[in-house]
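User: I want to check something. If I give you two sequences, will you return the structure for each one separately, not as a complex?

Assistant: Yes, each is folded on its own. Here is the first sequence with its structure:
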Amino acid sequence: MARKSNTKGRIVSAAWTLFYDQGYENTTVEEIIAASGTSKGSFYHYFEGKDALLETLSILFDEKYQELESQLDGDMDALAVLVYLNRELFTMIDQRIPMELLARLLSSQLVTRGDKHLLDKSRTYFKLLGRIIRRGQDRGELRADLTVNEMVKGYAMFERALMYDWCLSDGDYSLSRYAAQVMPMFLEGYRQR
């Protein structure tokens, strides 16, 4: 099973690297297959075509969160951890994700009738946020009058709002630098007084 998910992960990673380097429209399925070191059969086993890869951005984000979780300092304040995770993800977006493709993903989530993968509570993203916030509440760092789910929802909503605004602004500023200014102010509302 790990081999299967590794193949899919290699395809996703190669695709997004190519999308960033040469643009979505200029990237072919054949180039993705070559860059991922997989086969045409493997590609079409996981994806109907190149457009289906747009939906994998949440997978790329979750892979980043898994990588970051292994680097977290367990003694860090919960709000500092959330700011750190946001900064690292948004730096990745600034450096590796074309704004046009993020905009396509966000707009596709508005019109989809099926799974809204950005809202899928089984994602690594939501599970990690829940653990961080729960630990922060247990330590008395975060408010107890809000549930873990309410705080996770608020944080996720604020992140999506920042990404949406960045796309609306045609990516004319650094997403990570702007979020570094406003995310701590937003999160202060979660701090236990």
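And separately, the second sequence with its own structure:
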Amino acid sequence: MLIDYARARRLLARRDPVLRDLMRRLGPCGLADAQHADPFRALVHAIISQQLSTRASATIEARVAALFGGAPTAATLAATADAQLRAAGLSSQKLGYLRDLCRHVGDGVLSLATLDTMSDDEVIASLTRVKGIGRWTAEMFLMFRLHRPDVLPVDDLGIVKAVQRAYRLRTAPSATRLRRLGESWRPYRSVACWYLWASLDTVPLKE
């Protein structure tokens, strides 16, 4: 689904003066720059990068890619010995997560080719069956890989902080309060979130 960014900006500016001011200051929405990458590669990246700095994650991913002469597939990754992957820097826990991802893809339980045809809730349900992939990761996949326009990750710390700052709240907003605030952003909550992240210069990096 392609997002009509001009329409999204007009709607958000009309409904929310805080977002209107952010959009005027920050310019075009950068979600338009996020590319539709290979979904398996995106999920491997999401698992490897958990709780790591950008530099550490990039180093490990480069070592993993070197094993395969490029990005691995589910089949090639599944066929690679644990020792080789550990030597590339993968922890036992993340190795287990990647093995589970490969099993789900290999068995057809997770059909990456059909994710784009599913609803947002169906995508989240499918992805979170894999160990190591939680709701937040699935929501980032929806926003940055599938370009879904109406995702609101209420558990994202950047969104919580940005809303507190932009709306001058005395305390951090709860998930309930974020959902209530986000009702006026429908059907472009993803676009609103990008501007909130950008206001803190903390837009999630999605390789």
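Because they were folded independently, the notes below concern the second chain alone. The mean pLDDT is 93. The radius of gyration is 18 Å.
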